[in-house]
Write the structure tokens for this entry.
Amino acid sequence: MDRNRHFLRQWLPWIDDTQTPDDTRRHLKERLQASIGGDEIHLTIVIDGAIVGRAGLQQIHPTNRTANIGYWLGEEFTGRGIMSETVRELIEIGRHYYSLQKLTIRCGTENVKSRAVPERLGFQHEGTLRRNENLYGRWIDHEVYSLLLEPNNSTESH
Ligand SMILES: CC(C)(COP(=O)(O)OP(=O)(O)OC[C@H]1O[C@@H](n2cnc3c(N)ncnc32)[C@H](O)[C@@H]1OP(=O)(O)O)[C@@H](O)C(=O)NCCC(=O)NCCS
């Protein structure tokens, strides 16, 4: 994350909150606790022993059986399909282990590379959430993509 601070800061609101190893430890502990509580699950993506990024299901809702997918990669690991493959895995985890019936991905409208991930995986564009996030003092719109899941092993319906 430290190596990619400038790259990640373009789209991730929490980068400035993780400046030191202790900040990162706290962040990981919070994510772990939320995972134990069943609200989230996070994958650390490792290639040849190096951490290249993270991705996860957030806001897992047990009644609605919905969740939101979030992700990031180190810049040097982009352009290889790593995140699309990881999100494919997350879809299966959501379907099999959490019985989710709908997944969403929200991307900054101008975050073309992030939008390409759900578009590549057959998510449907639901619409635009206008002025939805304060990103370091700049208001940004979000594009919402969703995928409807049939329970275990069936094919997706878009
Ligand atoms: C969003 C982000 C993860 C996308 O990374 P990415 O590398 O473009 O996505 P993927 O790993 O799926 O790779 C897709 C790219 O690899 C290429 N690729 C190569 N082999 C591939 C394969 N087998 N399958 C799919 N794509 C492949 C694709 O053509 C595409 O490249 P292109 O954009 O030049 O056409 C990355 O830009 C990032 O971390 N950004 C900063 C943080 C961020 O914005 N997070 C999301 C907030 S909503």
Remarks:
- The chain has one domain: 5-148.
- The mean pLDDT is 94.
